[in-house]
């Protein structure tokens, strides 16, 4: 079985035991890798109803068949678990040498269960596994932890770790690598902390074997060259995703003051052009020639790696118009291991709650000192920070005063940085995302702005599903989506890479079917973990977008229409092969090769 190692490493932290599990070619071609492997592993091995912080919960690090090979942006690692933030399926990906080393160590995934008796570091070097005492590391930031581990294991080791946020079980804590690469928005870092696992170190000395190494070398080189020749490559290297700030502000989708508005009067001060003036370096992931990370010196003289999402959520969303101060909050989040998107949402929520006098604390819009202190309080669960560490859904339920209407989340996961009052397709993408409101599963707002942004209808539904399939493919392949999505690398390269690596012919349509299969499996996981308590309301975006029109900008007065959104959602369900509540039909699951999943789902809901 070329292209895949055919092995998973299963680790039990409670007993300090590990075994190697194998899988066959059918499993590989059915679920491909990355999210596909992670979702299937969780479905098969996690008892229904397992508490996210229970030792029985699994934490999965998974790679894809393209991970680690010399081709564009092939250094992605998926980290997955049952989410403590949402209670459903949770995952994220991060670019890290840990992905490459895991593959070269001979594994395609690591499955971690149990709970270590004391803080522990998992060290995997080829077939050797050891459990290292992490007492001296507990309480340190992710940056400090990785720096110390590099002194021991070398600068080229693959290392992922958590900061104090993960240790203190902040429910939107992430897993961090390389001082700014973070993944696992729905609390994967908190699951890691609940297991007393401070870090994982991967060292692989093996060689990845491709079916046709000559073709792979040629096609990989040609793919890199194609990226360099793309029209917008030079501008991408200058600004990366930060150019989105100006675009989002011009088009009224920039999150501002907890999504009350879509434009920010100080947007220019946090734009990509401002970042260019103060940038000191670019950073990228393994095997990448796009280097999307823009590093600037923050207001405290420290390096901070920025992208659009953290600038928007820690800038305009909280009314902060100083890029260097935004960079401090971003760097603190990375050090503490907090998701920057959810952090920005909770800070904005707290500022609005303070403005409306629903809480005693005075936390002012745009006040850097207030935001900095509250970030620390969240990481260490102090005072109000302890409430906010649960995420805005729980915080709103505790604070009350109608705040659930402007707690910006879907299924418990805070909305990433696009205001959708006039973008129904993007609102639908958020509503139906596999992990909660996250843009990486269907960034359809860019297309939508160019094609009658406020319209509803079947065309937009089709585009959401198309984008969800496309993004799902990248989540399974183990490569970054940016070469395709942002630069325009031709999608035909990916089936070619798969063929050179595995010797198997996959057409793009085949990959879409795999993405659809995984999408439905994840939906089934949500239904199972909710014990069948599932309604279409769970696929609705926040109430604020329906009830409060924008008061400024080019699309002043815009808001979502609940009836039209509901009609669009129904069309989406029909095209997905789901019933009127958004539950996959039996025939849909069977058609996708998920008959055994249908049997399990039928224990909780009536399948049509």
Question: How would the blueprint of this fold be written?
Answer:
Blueprint: E1 7-12, E2 17-22, H1 25-31, H2 35-45, E3 59-62, E4 76-82, E5 89-95, H3 97-104, E6 109-113, E7 120-125, E8 128-133, H4 142-153, E9 158-161, H5 164-167, E10 175-177, E11 181-183, H6 188-194, E12 197-203, H7 213-228, H8 233-239, H9 244-250, H10 272-278, E13 279-283, E14 293-297, E15 303-306, H11 308-314, H12 323-336, H13 340-355, H14 368-379, H15 384-388, H16 392-399, E16 409-410, E17 413-414, H17 424-432, H18 445-450, H19 458-477, H20 482-487, H21 493-502, H22 508-529, H23 544-547, H24 562-576, H25 586-591, H26 595-601
Parallel strand pairs: 1-6, 7-12
Antiparallel strand pairs: 1-2, 3-4, 3-6, 4-5, 7-8, 9-12, 10-11, 13-14, 14-15, 16-17
Helix pairs in contact: 2-22, 7-21, 11-13, 12-14, 17-19, 19-22, 19-24, 22-26
Q: Largest sheet, order of strands side by side?
A: 2-1-6-3-4-5
Domains (count): 3
The CATH topology of the largest domain is Aldehyde Ferredoxin Oxidoreductase,  A, domain 1
CATH architecture of the largest domain, please?
4-Layer Sandwich
Oligomer: single chain
Distance between the amino and carboxyl termini: 38 Å
Q: Can you characterise this structure?
A:
The protein has 608 residues and is of the alpha+beta class. It folds into three domains: 7-203, Aldehyde Ferredoxin Oxidoreductase,  A, domain 1; 234-418, Orthogonal Bundle (Aldehyde Ferredoxin Oxidoreductase Protein, subunit A, domain 2); 428-601, Aldehyde Ferredoxin Oxidoreductase Protein, subunit A, domain 3. The chain contains 26 helices and 17 strands. A six-stranded mixed beta sheet has the order 2-1-6-3-4-5. Strands 8-7-12-9 form a four-stranded mixed beta sheet, sandwiched between helices. Strands 13-14-15 form a three-stranded antiparallel beta sheet. Strand 16 and strand 17 form a beta hairpin. The protein is globular and about 60 Å long.
């Amino acid at each position: 079985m070329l292209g895949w190692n055919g092995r998973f490493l299963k680790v039990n932290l409670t007993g300090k035991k590990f075994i190697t599990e194998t899988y066959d070619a059918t499993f590989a071609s059915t679920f491909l890798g990355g999210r596909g492997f992670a979702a299937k592993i969780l479905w098969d091995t996690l008892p229904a109803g397992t508490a996210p912080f229970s030792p029985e919960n699994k934490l999965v690090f998974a790679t894809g068949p393209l991970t680690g090979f010399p081709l564009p942006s092939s250094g992605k690692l998926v980290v997955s678990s049952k989410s403590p933030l949402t209670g459903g399926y949770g995952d994220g990906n991060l670019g890290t040498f840990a992905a490459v080393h895991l593959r070269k160590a001979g594994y395609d995934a690591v499955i971690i269960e149990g709970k270590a008796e004391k803080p522990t570091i998992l060290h995997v070097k080829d077939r050797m596994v050891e459990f290292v005492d992490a007492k001296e590391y507990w309480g340190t930031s992710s940056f400090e932890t990785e720096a110390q581990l590099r002194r021991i294991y070398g600068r080229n080791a693959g290392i992922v770790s958590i900061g104090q946020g993960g240790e203190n079980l902040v429910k939107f804590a992430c897993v961090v690598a390389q001082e700014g690469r973070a993944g696992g928005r729905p609390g994967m870092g908190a699951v890691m902390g609940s297991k007393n696992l401070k870090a994982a170190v991967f060292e692989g000395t093996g060689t990845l074997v491709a079916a046709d190494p000559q073709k792979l070398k040629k096609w990989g080189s040609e793919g890199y060259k194609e990226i360099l020749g793309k029209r917008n490559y030079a501008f991408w290297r200058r600004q990366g995703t930060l150019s989105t700030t100006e675009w989002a502000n011009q088009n009224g989708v920039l999150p501002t003051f907890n999504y009350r508005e879509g434009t920010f009067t100080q947007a220019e001060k946090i734009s990509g052009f401002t970042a260019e003036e103060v940038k000191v370096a670019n950073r990228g992931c393994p095997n990448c020639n796009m280097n999307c990370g823009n590093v600037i010196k923050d207001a405290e003289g420290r390096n901070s790696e920025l992208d659009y999402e953290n600038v928007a959520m820690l800038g305009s969303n909280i009314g902060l118009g100083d890029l260097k101060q935004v960079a401090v909050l971003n760097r603190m989040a990375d050090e503490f291991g907090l998701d920057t998107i959810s952090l920005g949402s909770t800070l904005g929520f707290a500022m609005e709650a303070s403005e409306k006098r629903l809480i005693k604390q005075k936390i002012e819009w745009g006040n850097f000192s207030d935001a900095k202190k509250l970030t620390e309080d969240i990481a260490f669960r102090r005072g109000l920070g302890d409430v906010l560490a649960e995420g805005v859904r729980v915080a709103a339920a505790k604070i009350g005063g109608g705040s659930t209407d402007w707690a910006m989340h879907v299924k418990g996961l805070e909305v990433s940085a696009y205001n959708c009052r006039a973008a129904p397709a993007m609102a639908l993408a958020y509503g139906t995302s596999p992990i909660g409101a996250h843009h990486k599963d269907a960034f359809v707002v860019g297309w939508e702005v160019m094609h009658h942004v406020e319209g509803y209808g079947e065309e937009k539904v089709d585009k959401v599903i198309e984008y969800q399939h496309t993004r799902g493919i990248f989540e399974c392949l183990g490569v970054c989506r940016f070469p395709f999505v942002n630069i325009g690398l031709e999608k035909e390269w990916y089936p070619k890479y798969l063929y050179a690596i595995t010797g198997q012919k996959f057409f793009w349509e085949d990959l879409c079917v795999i993405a659809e299969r995984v999408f439905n499996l994840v939906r089934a996981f949500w239904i199972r973990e909710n014990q069948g308590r599932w309604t279409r309301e769970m696929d609705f975006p926040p109430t604020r977008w329906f009830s409060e029109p924008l008061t400024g900008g080019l699309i002043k007065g815009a808001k979502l229409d609940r009836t039209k959104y509901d009609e669009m959602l129904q069309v989406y369900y029909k095209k997905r092969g789901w019933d009127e509540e958004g539950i996959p039909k039996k025939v849909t699951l069977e058609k996708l090769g998920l008959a055994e999943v249908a049997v399990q789902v039928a224990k909780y809901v009536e399948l049509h």
